[in-house]
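Fold this sequence, please.
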Amino acid sequence: MSGLYRHAPEGDRRQELIEATLECIAELGIQSTTVRAVAAKAGVSNGLIRHHFENKANLIVAAYRRTMELITAAAFEVLASKEGTPHQRLNRFVCVALGGQASEYRMISLWATFISQIGVNPVIASLRSEEYLSLRRATEALIAEVFEAEGRNPSKEEIEQMAIVANAVLDGLWIEACLDESGKTVEQMIDLGINAFETLMNVKLT
């Protein structure tokens, strides 16, 4: 492993150090994840990690960014896509938000660890708020497209409220999907999520 890290390009090496940090956090928790622990996991020197991240705080923030990317990347991709009808895209959004890599137990374990830091780490708190608002705004835009296709014109405030409720429902279903390590409930959570959007918006997505 140490040879892999030494010879990797700069961008790849940085990414591998972030992945090693996530492994340490999953195994040890944030408090016990030190520069030394990450270096040992990655098979590199402490100095190499400080070269890329300067200190543990920056490393933890980078690991949090990566965790949120792993959880939300597929959802953002669907929200930004113009492939298919708005109804089809909203259906796909629910599916990817609750399935695939996003619903792995490791994801909720890492997410919960970082969320516990919000009260003591203002950088993580700020990043979490930015990520949530970005996801909600993108959801609002797709919801508005669905209504436009239906020939309906709810107010901006109504769409915003729907997006808040819809994302809250998805968050709860996502937690349930992640906590079942067998993965058997994922399809059920997806069905419930689609039904929830259909009820909230009074549309058919299937």
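Confidence is low (pLDDT under 50) at residues 1-7. The longest helix spans residues 122-149.
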